[in-house]
Amino acid sequence: MPVPKSSVESSPRKLLRDVVLEKMLAAIQDGTLQAGERLNDDELVAWLGVSRTPIREAIAKLVDFGLVEMEANRYTRVASPTREQYDDAFQLLFGFAELAARWAVPKLDDAAVKQLGKLLDQARKHADAEDRALNDDIDALIAFLVAHSGNELLVKTSEGIVNRAKFVRIGQPEFVFWDVKHGLDSFHAAAKGRDGEAAGAVIRSMSRAMAEHLTEMRAANANADADADATA
């Protein structure tokens, strides 16, 4: 689809390249800029209302995240996420989440535990309703844990992983792990007890359950497709 016409207001608190990066990230993740779509400098300049320099700087960051592909003198385009990339990204994302939980939970004060409880309640609500907003809840939970980990390197490193995970999820639109709700009470109890090891174990258990469910779901889909081909 064509690059939409809009504009970016520069923020005194952010570098222009960061404003552009946020705008392009959002457009890729919501499908405005679709997988495989070529990114034209002139169209991006017209849309974002900035010069080529911050756009190129933002694109370089998107390449680092794996969201954009570039080949000199040939193309710059939105990447097309694969199943293997999905699996790799979420394995690493849950690894980050487990580590962040182990570090963050013992440091939480009462206000932070209350905030965490609200995030978990929201996740349960969306899981019970099978609302795809559950994906955003999981992202928010991981961001909360990373932010409270007390480790700046983890905070910086997680940026690319989180954005990568959001992107590759586009290639697996049918999959949402509703059963994540079964671990929320245990996680909340671990947080109330400031037990980082227990919280990390809950995340690890969720990760295993998600991987097993995804394998089962893919096998079922493959069998269904084979049956459909056989009867066609």
Brief rundown of the structure:
The chain has 232 residues and is mainly α. The protein has nine helices and two strands; from the N terminus they run αααββαααααα.
CATH architectural grouping of the largest domain:
Up-down Bundle
Q: Number of helix segments?
A: 9
Give the C-alpha Rg: 20 Å
Low-confidence runs: none
Number of strands: 2
Which overall shape is indicated by the principal axes computed on the Cα atoms?
globular
**Largest sheet geometry:** 2 strands, antiparallel
Give the CATH superfamily of the largest domain.
GntR ligand-binding domain-like
* Helix/strand/pairing category: mainly alpha
CATH class of the largest domain: Mainly Alpha
Distance between the termini: 33 Å
CATH topology of the largest domain: Four Helix Bundle (Hemerythrin (Met), subunit A)
Strand order of the largest sheet: 1-2
What does this structure look like?
It comes from Curtobacterium caseinilyticum. Residues 14-81 form the HTH gntR-type domain. This is GntR family transcriptional regulator. Pfam families: GntR. Keywords: DNA-binding, Transcription, Transcription regulation. The protein starts with 15 loop residues before the first helix and ends with a helix. α4 runs antiparallel to α9 (196-231). It has helices spanning 16-29, 41-48, 52-65, 83-104, 110-128, 134-147, 152-168, 184-192, 196-231; strands at 68-71, 75-78. The chain is built from 9 helices and 2 strands; from the N terminus they run αααββαααααα. The model has no long low-confidence stretch (mean pLDDT 87). A hairpin with a 3-residue loop joins β1 (68-71) and β2 (75-78). It is mostly helical and 232 residues long. 66% of the residues lie in helices and 3% in strands. Strands 1-2 form a two-stranded antiparallel ribbon. 28% of the residues are buried. The protein folds into 2 domains: 16-78, Arc Repressor Mutant, subunit A, CATH 1.10.10; 83-227, Four Helix Bundle (Hemerythrin (Met), subunit A).
